[in-house]
Amino acid sequence: MKPQKIGRALGIGLRVAGRVAGERMAAQAQASAQTPPNQQVADTDAVRSAASRAAGRSTGRASRGLVRGIGGFLRPFGTVGRKLWLEITGVFFLLPVLVFGPWMWRTRASWDHGPNHRTFLISAVIVVLFLYLGISSFWRAWRK
Fold first, then answer.
1. What domain range includes position 24?
2. Which pTM does this prediction carry?
3. Based on the structure, what is the number of domains in the chain?
């Protein structure tokens, strides 16, 4: 992964987090400026519900921004994690090839008919299957 992509993702995440924090501070300052400290506000159901709706909307906007910021921050790590996962599974798929390959080589003389015909066929199928799985896993990791 290029360092520029990681830096860009970190910068975007920090900008979004800063914007969310700024919106919250502005909402709190606006709420405190609207109500003078010595004036009593009438507690009616309409005022409470309007205030709770406004608070819910601002909280929703803030949480959406936060989620987008965190998602932008974690996206490069997810890409690297997917590549790493594919490479690790490719290595584990190639381990049976290392085990059954020599076994297949030892029994190659009886591939057509002989005492180890079944052993050769089983080991050949296992080697071909796991070789395909290991190579395709590395191929997918290389493409991403």
1. 3-143
2. 0.49
3. 1
